[in-house]
Amino acid sequence: xxxxxxxxxxxxxxxxxxxxxxxxxxxxxxxxxxxxxxxxxxxxxxxxxxxxxxxxxxxxxxxxxxxxxxxxxxxxxxxxxxxxxxxxxxxxxxxxxxxxxxxxxxxxxxxxxxxxxxxxxxxxxxxxxxxxxxxxxxxxxxxxxxxxxxxxxxxxxxxxxxxxxxxxxxxxxxxxxxxxxxxxxxxxxxxxxxxxxxxxxxxxxxxxxxxxxxxxxxxxxxxxxxxxxxxxxxxxxxxxxxxxxxxxxxxxxxxxxxxxxxxxxxxxxxxxxxxxxxxxxxxxxxxxxxxxxxxxxxxxxxxxxxxxxxxxxxxxxxxxxxxxxxxxxxxxxxxxxxxxxxxxxxxxxxxxxxxxxxxxxxxxxxxxxxxxxxxxxxxxxxxxxxxxxxxxxxxxxxxxxxxxxxxxxxxxxxxxxxxxxxxxxxxxxxxxxxxxxxxxxxxxxxxxxxxxxxxxxxxxxxxxxxxxxxxxxxxxxxxxxxxxxxxxxxxxxxxxxxxxx
Length: 501
Hints:
mainly alpha, globular, disordered C terminus, transmembrane transporter activity, Growth Hormone, Chain: A
């Protein structure tokens, strides 16, 4: 196992390395499923977390991103991204294992305060490793394969996410129903399993080849400020930061809203998340192909309005009197949001890698991550602080019809989290104005791509319809021919028999 960077990487080594990167992504995705997202939110609610503490949990992954500056310094000093990524990923997995074994070593359960502290250190080490990994992948993966490779990796990771999420949700619901006293033990066991799977990803990273990086001579803060002087990259930072703020004001509380306000059980919330994941998986290959063929900016301009519509629609899901209507609305929202977030996340990641100069990629990508993280951190914490205020204020807009029968039609009913969904959607719309200032090589106007997508869809539809029509046309004809031949043979045999008689 060679932990030093390689001067030259053969095609065989590259293909082998890309397979290891996919395997690393799968093991890391399994770790994320068990230790974050809806399961972490459900665990925190069970432990009695306040709205502010729920906001802190949502903000932790981005709050610690400033520590990526340490990654720049380490890469500059040691010039070995594989070693830095592996060591700090190893350190990031230890707090997860600690959360899993603490209830076994000490009497009582882990408190929400201890959980926050351990996850704080987990994210610090993970961010240092992540910045180094980004730079490593920038050099390892050929530019012309960037979109297709990461879409394939994401598709496989999300398929695993769906499978594990569903199985885990069913197991947790079983434990809650039959062994309610063991619910917290089930959550901590997930953390232990996640930590072990995370260790497997470290082993896979150590086997992945690393191209020798170009040394960076300037000081860390001088390099960091260099990325801010790049006008085009600065425009990307402005758009991505406002977009992240808008989304993180609303999206971290979707699961909380569905469980607390609508009253859905955990299995329903996980099921809707799986529907979103399946929609994302189905569309990732398409977005990866269009990302390489056209531009990432175009993909964002197509997908972002769809996702904004989903955020705004969430504010109306608690209004219908019928539970079936609510579930139908949530189903449609999750299908469209999965489709759109697949394109947005892929394009935002790729456009950052694409616009970053190769020699200083780690600096540019770390600057992007830190600015986005700052706004991503502020948003959910603000949401958690203001949640109680908005919970006591209601904005209603109704139409009343009076006559022989009195009827009231609810058009708008905002309370609690609904305010954040409306505000977040409006801010996200404003951020799209900043996207227009970003310049990307190979950029194609959105209208042309939409026309191309429609034409491709119509051609596929026509081919399928044509194939069906052909099958329907020829199948009866062949059947008629067979019957005619049978009748002809029968008639011919009868005629021959008469002549012989």
